[in-house]
Specification:
heterodimer; A: alpha/beta; eleven-stranded mixed β-sheet; 15 strands; 36% helix; globular; B: mainly alpha; Histone, subunit A; two-stranded antiparallel sheet; 3 helices; 2 strands; flat; nucleotide-binding (chain B)
């Protein structure tokens, strides 16, 4: 049974359609895997077992009649940011205590319409603000990956009775796992951890500054942030509306393509959702990249970047070159300003979006001596430290007298960041290759990051430019570092050209292989 | 630019977040670290650059001005901490 959890979505899809397995069986396999692993990994904050079984039963009925949808019977985990009707939806914040929406987000509704099965809601950084999944009201998520070291083990020479040698001795190498707990990245840390640890076949996630791609890179999974406007934001708890996008985290490139096809849609309920048909992303997989122009931006070679990451980047370049791509050096001169501009734009939008949590319409209410006191006490008790920090920054930069100096300046810089990409694409570059993160996964309760918020923010240095420019970006695992931790490469594409990302990411995946953590949980 | 303790308290009140003296002091340091980090934006020459208003050029979708949804007062108040007959209850605001 437990092997069913190791099937990719495309493999499970074939077996379900071929009636080799049932949706009920694969759903039970995931539910028992979650029961065993979740006390340790804390990836799920709610498991919807009964709902999952009902959905699986309905899927089996459809599959029996040969009527299954694109994801019929595939068990998925849903990030707690997505509104799910009648089911816990709190953006992992205390301020939304007890909130169960009376509606379903467009993205999840699309998945259920295609036959997917909901296993439960996944842990995340509170309101998607964080890069380590440690700001969740429900505690940190643990990365199924651990550091390891390669040991040389001396094999003793052994005899068997009077006969010959059984072992001739010599040495072999073995990996020894370290006990230190690592973060899965954030904010979609629950999604990444659950996909990597085989606790769901795939997961929904969201990305405002890197929240899909950074955790995917930290867990050896594939994560794509589509172009702004490709997935409807309707029914997703808002963080920074001009940057937020939903996308999948999956175990391989093909699965990510299958999931995005179902998640993306044209939606009248989100005026920023784009009015263009969703292509068949899976069809792009396996197409040759011969003659494709791949840009390598020199500004992504940052000071203090670990050697492993530079080496991985070079490997990625070599793989694409071997596959017939043309490698060109490019410049994106405003790259270094993307992160500071983001830390004005995102908090400003967040301070406005999060004004709605006032103890009146939903969630937590802390009584006060009058209504203002009630608002202030409710928000003081309901929001965690990081969320308060960002609301405060946002309120400050939008306050009278500071708007021009901060917000307007940041939005102008954003125009320049986008222009950098436009210039490169106009010059004929099809896709840009960069590292996904400046490091591998770090430890839970890392002291450096805890003492300086800016250090934590630097995790998004390679991913945030993509959100600022509204472009699609995919993180694909490309190797392990010296300590045995996964590292990812990022591909950035033209607006609405997710197909090229899947096509190119697949070439990297073919060369690098896929990566699974050694099971310790 | 940097903020002092008084400014932090004023901003906290604008953001409707109650802060203790200790919170405000800690936040002053943290906010100044972030403001110090974003300061580098001032070195960018933005003369003649339009601020971004929409990341993808798109026309605002419009639809017929007709009622397409509604009559769900019970749904709307379902998650409220205090309600009475489909009204949200709040502390007294007018004497």
């Amino acid at each position: 049974m437990s092997d069913l959890t190791h099937l990719t979505i495309s493999q499970a899809r074939a077996k379900l359609r071929g009636k080799e397995i049932t949706a009920a069986e694969i759903t039970e396999a995931y539910l028992s895997a979650i029961e065993r692993a979740n006390p340790v990994l804390n990836a799920y904050i709610t498991v919807t077992g009964d709902k999952a079984r009902d959905m699986a039963e309905a899927s089996d009925a459809k599959l029996a009649k040969g009527e299954g949808g694109a994801l019929e019977g595939i068990p998925l985990g849903i990030k707690d940011l997505f509104g799910t009707e009648g089911v816990h939806t709190q953006a992992c914040s205390h301020v939304l205590d007890g909130f169960k929406p009376r509606y379903e987000s467009t993205v999840t509704a699309n998945l259920w319409a295609d036959g997917a099965v909901m296993l439960g809601k996944l842990n995340m950084d509170e309101f998607a603000m964080g890069s380590s999944n440690e700001t969740s009201h429900y505690g940190p998520v643990i990365n199924p990956w651990r550091r390891s070291r390669l040991d040389t083990v001396v094999m003793p020479t052994t005899h068997q009775g009077d006969g010959g040698f059984v072992s001739a001795g010599g040495t072999k190498t073995a990996r020894t796992l370290d006990n230190a707990q690592l973060v899965p990245g954030g904010s979609s840390g629950g999604s990444a951890s659950a996909v990597s640890a085989f606790l769901c076949a795939g997961a929904t996630a969201t990305d405002t500054g890197g929240s899909i791609r950074q955790p995917a890179a930290f867990t050896g999974t594939v994560g794509i942030k589509p172009t702004y406007g490709r997935c409807s934001r309707w029914g997703i708890v808002a963080f920074a509306s001009s940057l937020d996008q939903a996308g999948p985290i999956a175990r391989d490139v093909r699965d990510a393509a299958i999931l995005l096809k179902s998640m993306a849609s044209v939606d009248l309920k989100d005026t920023t959702s784009v009015d263009r048909p969703v292509p068949d992303y899976e069809a792009a997989i396996g197409k040759p990249i011969k003659g494709m122009k791949v840009g390598i931006p020199k500004e992504y070679r940052v000071d203090g970047m670990p050697e492993d990451i530079e080496a991985l980047w070079q490997k990625g370049i070599a793989w694409l070159k071997d596959a017939g791509a043309e490698i060109v050096d490019i410049s994106l001169p405003h790259t270094k300003y993307a992160l500071p501009a983001y830390y004005i734009v995102a908090p400003a939008e967040a301070s406005s979006n999060l004004a709605r949590y006032d103890g009146v319409r939903y969630g937590l209410r802390v009584p006060g001596k009058d209504i203002i006191d009630m608002y202030e006490r409710t928000r003081a008790a309901g929001f965690g430290r990081e969320v308060k920090r960002r609301i405060m920054i946002g309120t400050y930069v939008l306050s009278a007298g500071y708007y021009d100096a901060y917000y307007l300046q940041a939005q102008k810089v954003r125009t320049l960041i986008k222009r950098d990409f436009e210039n490169v694409f106009t010059a004929g570059v099809d896709v840009i290759l960069t590292p996904a993160t400046p490091s591998a996964a770090f430890g839970v309760a890392d002291e450096d990051m805890a003492s300086d918020p800016v250090k934590m923010y630097l995790n998004d240095i390679f991913t945030v430019t993509v959100n600022m420019a509204g472009l699609p970006g995919i993180a694909v695992p490309a190797g392990l570092d010296a300590k045995g931790l996964p590292l990812g490469l990022q591909l950035i594409g033209r607006p609405f050209d997710e197909e090229t990302l899947f096509q190119t990411a697949y070439v990297i995946e073919q060369a690098a292989g896929t990566f699974q953590p050694e099971k310790w949980w | 630019m940097s903020v002092d303790l008084q400014t932090v308290k004023r901003v906290a009140h604008l953001a409707r977040i109650a802060v203790s003296e200790e919170d405000a002091e800690r936040m002053t340091g943290e906010l100044n670290a972030i403001l110090g980090f974003v300061e580098q934006l001032n070195e960018v020459d933005v003369s003649g650059v339009e601020p971004m208003t929409s990341v993808t050029p798109m026309e605002m979708k419009k639809r017929q001005d007709v009622v397409t949804d509604g009559s769900k007062a019970t749904d709307i108040v379902a998650n409220a901490p205090a309600t009475d007959e489909n009204f949200f209850l709040v502390p007294k605001v007018v004497e």
